[in-house]
Amino acid sequence: MADPRPTLTEIDPVWHRICEEAEAAIVSEPLMGGLVHAGVLHHATFERALAYRLSMKLASPEMSEQILREIADAAYAAAPELPAAARADLVAIFDRDPACHRFMQPLLFFKGFQAVQSYRLGHWLWANDRKDLAYYVQMRVSETFGVDIHPAARIGQGIMIDHAHSIVVGETAVVGDNVSMLHSVTLGGTGKEDDDRHPKIGDGVLIGAGAKVLGNISVGHCSRIAAGSVVLEDIPPMKTVAGVPAKIVGEAGCAQPSRTMDQMLAR
């Protein structure tokens, strides 16, 4: 008689694939055995592995790995949308980043993925009125990954931050689903006002390296912002903007620019 219980693959195909890749990695490079066992194979679930990895990265002499792991475990138990978003982010990175060849890589090695998941933990703390802990997480994400995302910012899922160096996302910023951005992107304000002062990025937007989007402005869904641009005004959906200050230079070029990652301007 067949076992009626669902298999690991049916329950969580992302985690199943990570575990398979981890076992193959140890065969290929035995010197990685300790790291891969500790980071993946010692854990029964993706949630436990993610909590462990973030606690290792965010710990400091002021806050132990054990305390941070307990915080993450509690967050994932109370808010299953957090690890669900992490899975979506991981698959997005695999789909869009040509340097990502295995599901295991973002979990273990990619600071963009780890920084976003740490932000998600800090945002959960912020939403539950544990603001000092949220600020601690923000501080450690900035110190560890070079990524500064305010815990009050709202970020969707399916997010890829490639290279993830010098990313800044302000307190009242909103980022939609399936957004891709490269290093040195700023979603910032334009002064010292204390109100809704940061950009609102629509779904499916591609933001090139070094782009600055400033002020309480809207970037329409499935638009492209060229590398090095400074955006100071609203962008309609499905447009390409470039320059300082940025101007519309054409259509987005495709239905899903954040997925194709095509950053070339038409001539």
Output the keywords.
six-stranded mixed β-sheet; 267 residues
Give the topology.
Blueprint: H1 8-11, H2 13-28, H3 33-41, H4 46-58, H5 65-78, H6 81-96, H7 104-108, H8 111-127, H9 131-145, E1 147-149, E2 154-155, E3 160-161, E4 167-169, E5 174-175, E6 180-181, E7 186-188, E8 200-201, E9 206-207, E10 212-214, E11 218-219, E12 224-225, E13 230-231, E14 239-242, E15 247-251, H10 257-260
Parallel strand pairs: 1-4, 2-5, 3-6, 4-7, 5-8, 6-9, 7-10, 8-11, 9-12, 10-13, 12-14
Antiparallel strand pairs: 14-15
Provide a brief overview of the structure.
Belongs to the transferase hexapeptide repeat family. The chain is 42% helix and 15% strand.
If you had to describe this structure to a student in words, what would you say it looks like?
The chain has 267 residues and is an alpha/beta fold. The protein is built from ten helices and 15 strands. It has helices at 8-11, 13-28, 33-41, 46-58, 65-78, 81-96, 104-108, 111-127, 131-145, 257-260; strands at residues 147-149, 154-155, 160-161, 167-169, 174-175, 180-181, 186-188, 200-201, 206-207, 212-214, 218-219, 224-225, 230-231, 239-242, 247-251. Strands 3-6-9-12-14-15 form a six-stranded mixed sheet. A five-stranded parallel sheet has the order 1-4-7-10-13. Strand 14 (239-242) and strand 15 (247-251) form a beta hairpin. The model has no long low-confidence stretch (mean pLDDT 94). Keywords: Acyltransferase, Amino-acid biosynthesis, Repeat, Transferase.
